[in-house]
Write a structure and sequence with these properties.
Radius of gyration: 22 Å
Largest sheet: none
Number of strands: 0
Length: 443
């Protein structure tokens, strides 16, 4: 019933938009607006799977725009195999191999061995591992892995020990924060890069990390301090043991070697000139060709996420080509604003509010095509929007890591909302301040 109601709402809103007397809206832009409204309604209500909405976007673009825009239908299909999609596919393959053969668990154990039994150091160690793994693999998978470690530690704690909450919140928060650090860390990053590419602005793997890593480190440390202070442990040492690491076998060494080579090439892209999307094919060939990743593994990759991203990129192309993005920017009355900071704040808060309730990928797909044309340095506003989509962690539904932590049954909505709101607001201030400085340096 809910599905049909949502579909009905989408149709009604589409008709209202199409026949509304919007001033200055051309026929191609009006039809694209209809597609945008349908996509936004279906993404928000999840009446049909998110990736199905992405496929519907491509279909509607071809059917509704073919007679009003002198553009080949292929333009709307290309984004589904955009180089950034291939880059993300490579990231998924690395993530699957690390997880399947327990390399991620090894990294966790190595860190925990070095933290000792101090609650604050354990929290910092776990948050660092969570953030680091989320830079290269799914933050959802990372959260699930790290929570199994956390539960083991929690079982050794007294019943009313506040440190339990700090540990349970530290993992999803660190996963969300860590995903900002690399282009493959989370889908909004990839969508930002692709939207910038449509303006002829390229940002390399290294350039992204140069901008993002200082933000990630600062927010991560502040979040750690905040959790350590708000949920201060009542005990000095936590009694738990780490199992001894087994020797690496030949498959483990192969996976680690491919990981190091791939990441190394991503980070040195400006030196050798090989596109990041092409480098992403290395783990695909190395793992699938050697049998590390089998057919079932390949089928279980996040294809739905890739299609969802492709739909967002395709929608962005249509908004640019039809003139809808430019028309929508005019509705913001940019000229009446006194500073870039105001625009940055507006788009950051819009992104956070939307991401609190719907997928951050869907939010980025809707907001970024508009954001990059508002008059602020495009790279700065694109990164602000992408980062804001990652730091929106006020509710359990805001991000998959939050949902996983809440699903443990050991956290209340109040725990997540109270701390998540503070972390989100602090993160926005840091992000906007850093990228405002960055935009001044560019300008």
């Amino acid at each position: 019933m809910k599905k049909w109601v949502s579909l009905g709402i989408a149709v009604v809103l589409a008709l209202v938009v199409y026949f509304a007397p919007f001033k200055g809206l051309t026929e191609p832009a009006r039809r694209t607006f209809v597609i945008l409204i349908v996509a936004a309604t279906l993404w928000i209500t999840e009446a049909i799977p998110l990736y199905a909405t992405s496929l519907l976007i491509a279909l509607l673009e071809v059917l509704l725009l073919k007679n009003v825009l002198d553009i080949s239908y292929k333009v709307y299909i290309y984004p589904f195999f955009d180089p950034i999609i291939v880059l993300f596919l490579g990231g998924f393959l690395l993530s699957r191999a690390l997880n399947k053969y327990g390399i991620d668990k090894r990294i966790t154990k190595i860190i925990l061995i070095r933290t000792g039994n101090s609650p604050k150091r354990i929290l910092l160690g776990i948050m660092i591992v969570s953030a680091f793994l989320s830079m290269w693999m799914s933050n959802t998978a990372t959260a699930a892995l790290m929570l199994t470690v956390a539960i083991t530690i929690i079982r050794s704690l007294p019943e009313k020990e506040p440190f339990k909450i700090a540990l349970l919140l530290g993992i999803p928060f660190a996963c969300n924060i860590g995903g900002m650090a690399t282009p493959i860390g989370t889908p909004p990053n990839a969508i930002a890069i692709s939207n910038l590419a449509q303006l002829g602005i390229s940002i390399s793997f290294t350039e992204w990390m140069t901008i993002a890593l200082p933000v990630v480190i600062l927010i991560l440390l502040i979040t750690w301090w905040l959790l350590s202070t708000m949920y201060k442990s009542k005990i000095q040492k936590i009694p738990f043991k780490i199992e001894k690491l087994l020797p690496l076998n030949i498959k483990d060494k192969w996976i680690i070697a491919v990981f190091i080579i791939t990441v190394g090439l991503w980070l040195t892209g400006q030196s050798h000139g090989i596109p990041a999307g092409v480098v992403a094919l290395i783990p695909a060939v190395a793992f699938i060709g050697s049998g590390i990743i089998d057919r079932n593994d390949f089928r279980s990759l996040g294809w739905d996420i890739l299609i969802l991203m492709g739909g967002g990129l395709s929608l962005g192309v249509a908004m640019q080509q039809s003139g809808l993005a430019k028309w929508m920017v005019g509705r913001f009355d940019v000229g009446g604003l006194t500073s870039e900071i105001q625009l940055m704040l507006i788009f950051s808060f819009i992104t956070v509010i939307m991401t609190t309730f719907i997928s951050n990928t869907s939010t980025a797909a809707l907001i970024l095509p508009i954001a990059i044309t508002i008059g602020v340095t495009p790279t700065a506003i694109a990164l602000i929007t992408a980062f804001s989509a990652s730091v929106a962690m006020i509710l359990p539904i805001s991000t998959p890591p939050n949902a996983i932590a809440y699903g443990s049954g050991l956290l209340s909505v109040k725990d997540i909302a109270k701390t998540g709101f503070i972390v989100t607001m602090i993160s926005i201030i840091i992000i906007i301040s850093w990228l405002f400085i960055f935009s001044r340096l560019l300008g």
